[in-house]
Amino acid sequence: MLKTTRQAVLAGAALIAFGFAADAGAQQTVKIGAVYPLSGNSASTGNYAKMAFEMGADIINNGDPELAKIFPLAKGGGLPGLKGAKIQMVIADNQGTPQAGANQTLRLITEEKVAALICCYQSAITVTASAVAEKYGVPFLNAESVAANLTERGFKWFFRTTPVAADFATAYLSFLKEQKAAGKKVDSIAIVHENTEYGNSVSSVISDAFTKGGLSVSMKVPYGANGPDVQPQVLQLKEKNPDVVIFISYTQDAILYAKTMKELNWKPAILIADDGGFNDPAFTKQMGPVTEGLISRSVFAQGKPGSVAAMMDALYKKKTGGDGLDDVSARVLQGFFVVADAINRAGSVEPAKVQAALKATDLKPDQLIAGYDGVKFDDKGQNILASTLVTQLKSSNYVAVWPKARATDPLVLPYKGW
Amino acid sequence: MTLVQVVIGGLLLGAVYALFSSGLTLIWGMMNVVNFAHGDFVMLGMYTGVVVWTALGGGPWASVPMAAILIATLGVISYFFLVRHIMKGPMLAQILGTFGLALFLRYGALYVFGANFKSLPDNLVGHSFVLGGIRFEGSRVLAAAVGLGVTLALHLILTRTAIGSRMLAVSEDATAAQLMGIRPQRMQALAWAMAGAATGIAGALMALFLPISPTAGESLAIVAFVTVSFGGFGSVTGALVAGLLIGVVESLSAYLIGPIYKEVIVYALFVLVLWFRPQGLMGKT
Amino acid sequence: MNARRIVPLALLVLALIYPVLTMESAVYQRMGALVLLAAIGASAWNIVGGYAGQVSVGHAVFFGIGAYSSVVAFVHVGLPPIVGAPLGVAVSVGLAALIGVPTLRLSGHYFSMATIAVGELVRVMVSTSDFLGGAQGLGGPPMPRTVLDLSFLSAMPYYYIFLVVLGVVLGVTWGIERGRMGFYLRAIKDSERAARSLGVSAGRYKLYAYMLSAGFASVAGSLYLCMFGFIDPESGFGILLSVKMVVMAALGGAGQLFGPLVGALILVPLEELSNSYLGGQGAGITYVVYGAIIVMIARFLPSGLLSLFERKPAPVKPTEPTSAAEGGHAD
Question: How many domains does chain C divide into?
């Protein structure tokens, strides 16, 4: 009885797989796997990532005439390096757990036979999923996990395009030192961070970098994420009245902090709202004037009209029904095109050739969606040209204000708010 | 002055804790059933608030009654379809059944409403006001006031009305109550309706100041469990006292020691209270 | 053939032919190992939750301690993770004694709630500890150094290891079930008051069951760490993990030797397959289906799937109404 059940399940699985691969005979398809949080606490992010992947595959398979003028992979008709093979994204749900992430990675490798993997958003899940890919020898690209040790494991199949926490810290440090030089007060700095992996790792890297760089963090306030009330923390801040506050928070807390600061009518002169929840459209679009003048970091800034980034942004808005690319979706989309480009250059889906092509990746800034200085991997698989921009929220949109060379808008201080 | 603000904030928070725990404690006391889907009932109440606002443009005056009716209906349906049957099994069947229900509701909400956070405009209730140097947030004051009102109403219904004494009779001894001409199932369904209504009201009011997502109920459920057992199962007034106490302790410890430790302190306090009073603050042995 | 013997025999046959059936599918091999791992955890829980009737909803504490002990053995001492397992067992058993003495006095739901609180307490404390990697968690050996690191490409070595461990857990449980302790535990579960009046030292036997259960749950955690090579506070101490142990045992049949294994045999494949074939669409259909199935089982088989195999439909045990009168009271 159990055996027949199993066969039925396998048959069902085969049917599903067959449904996808029905036209494989006529034309080769290249499968790329992605394991993202489509359920659980980060489901919102995962679903934005999913749309980015679908859009990326659509650009390569069906083309976009305008974009094709400046972006070769947008000519349509699949990957030229593989005789027009179409890209098929196989997206799986990591459910926000390292266990599901590893299990789904295994399935995509052994059953879907993906040529490469893009995974997993949360650093903890990237750890277990990449270990599976490493054992099977399948190229694994991580586009957004910032834990430093991911590239310190001696893995040969692991590539990371995103800047890491230390890069953000350096960006903030240089930014604040510049403000200091310009006469702004940055003597006391408070870091308020949620106490899961994201907040914990980013805050400790920032405070280390600041201490080494000659800025002092006078106050650190860790808190448990997703609580119903943040008034005590804001009152603490109000009392100490630091010059600079850095928030590292998820969406729910981001919204509560903004509301509560307004309620208690207190604001610092420089308010850095590190990415995370402060980049969520639910925050930027729904909170109104409270958000005006927040400083954040992002790898994405629309850039000049007609640039690859701006056109991708417009396409993404069409795809999502209004939400443009943000820090995370831009990193995801960038990761996708790095993989697609490598497979295209490899001219093959053979893992070793794709791995070699990834190692040889050398993308120039004008070909990028994310605002990196390029994409080029070192021996550990880290993109050495990854960098981040400091942005400021102006009428519900983040615009690049630092470094000067890349700024599209002037920096406005102090934080305006309500 | 700041300390007073902290305590007031804690009291307001605590009244909300009491509000969304009162439904849980009612069910718990009436039929010794622990509803693991309770947090998700609250979450659906919150979404009712969102839908009433986005689809109809209605504020809390419309969404609160609507949520009360909807979640009460959900409670009655859950009772007749599920709870009535699992009560015949061992206690574990409750955990099994209501946990399954929790997942079903939570991810049903994800399917219907999407994963993105929603929040209501914060001027629906009117802005905050200052009283004696203390700042009050309008929506939280409203939620706390209604929380006190609902708790009081439930308490009075149970202790001062005929229907309340019938419900208590069923919770004491269903068979004996039946012999006295009370229909236990009808009383229990009524308890689920009342609990659902209170929970729906809580959700609709909390939607005014909390961002809403399908997983919002997860952490709320734990708070509700602690509040209810802290106060003593089945004791509505116990839940109120425990809610206020937890709210103030959380607020004070977050302010004085650090927000990361507030949960540790509340849980430790809870375990300590159970050490000395195994039946909770106001539970009867 | 006697219905009571069909289930164990069928399970044994399945366990032995499963490797042959799944020779070609790495995914199904892994699923087999995961079923066994989940069954170890749930069977451990079953000793105190099923047999002694003390519903712990905080058993992840011991699972997490096992996983962390193993990872600490690697990170801070450089030993193979599995070497940390005995340490985990020792700490878990010790902590169980510490928690058990005050909480096991609590009746019914109060005990459950106290275990939830302790679980959350430990989770928050671990996430603030630098020694334990804080919220970021700790990773085991990225690359296996020797075979002792128990890091394999195939899931089959895990399958066999887990099978042996599960065999030990079930063997010990079976011994208890047949022995004096099992008799006492059943008496305590039926009516603690009656058991006490017969001279059974209820507190002591509940505590023994709790400590034993904690030790085995800790082993499950150590094994998890070896297989996945990473642990963080949420995957070690998350409340969902505790609830799943309860749910698995209850689904199969709590207080029955093979109940947790049957529960794991249903739930783990259900979770994996629904995630594999529905998860990619997003929107959480996986859990809608998963939740609905659990609800249906609870609705129609409140005493668990194994109650299907009992001669008569499971007689309604009148334990609840009495405790309802004791514990619950609306004022």
Answer: 1
Residue C11 contacts A, CB cutoff 8 Å? no
Q: What is the pLDDT of residue B127?
A: 73
Given a cut of 90, is residue C61 above it in pLDDT? yes
What is the average pLDDT across C21-40? 94
C266 assigned to some structural domain: yes
Residues on chain A touching C279 (C-beta within 8 angstroms): 38-39, 92-93, 95, 104
* CB < 8 Å to B214, chain A: 43
Judged by a CB distance cut-off of 8 A, whether residue B95 touches chain C is yes
The verdict on residue C295 lying in a domain is yes
Strands A29-36 and A295-298, by their bridges, are unpaired
| CB-based burial, A105-135: b 16+ in 10 Å, e otherwise | bbbbbbbbebbbbbbbbbbbbbbbbbbbbbb
Least-confidence region, from A233-242, A330-339, C103-112, C156-165: C103-112
Q: What is the mean pLDDT of residues A362-387?
A: 94
Residue C107 has pLDDT above 90, yes or no: no
Half-sphere exposure of A88 toward its Cβ, with a 13 Å CA cutoff?
A: 19
ipTM: 0.90
Q: Do A228 and B135 touch (CB under 8 A)?
A: no
Q: Which fold has domain A28-163+305-387?
A: Rossmann fold (3.40.50)
Selected from 3.40.50.2300, 3.50.50.60, 3.40.640.10, 3.40.50.1820, the CATH number assigned to the domain covering A172-298+392-406 reads 3.40.50.2300
d(CA A346, CA A33): 17
List Cα–Cα distances, A162 to A139, A386, C193, C283, in angstroms: 16, 6, 63, 27
| Higher pLDDT among residues A379 and A418, named by residue | A379
Provide the CATH number for the domain around residue C193: 1.10.3470
SS3 content of chain A, % helix, strand, coil (to 5): 50, 15, 35
Sequence-distant (6+) residues with CB within 8 A of C129 are: none
Write down the domain spans for chain A: 28-163+305-387, 172-298+392-406
Averaged pLDDT for residues C147-170? 94
The structure's pTM equals 0.90
Residue C272 with chain A: CB contacts under 8 Å: 103
Q: Is the pLDDT of residue A300 over 60?
A: yes
User: Is the Cα torsion angle B241, B243, B246, B247 positive or negative in sign?
Assistant: negative
C114 contacts in B (CB within 8 Å)? 229, 270-271, 274
User: Is there a contact between B283 and C120 if contact means CB atoms under 8 Å apart?
Assistant: no
Domains in chain B (CATH in brackets) are 2-118+134-276 (1.10.3470)
CA distance C192 to C203: 9
Q: Which residue of B has its CA nearest to A192?
A: B259
Q: What are phi and psi of C111, to 5 degrees?
A: -65, -45
User: What DSSP element (H or E) covers A218?
Assistant: strand A217-223
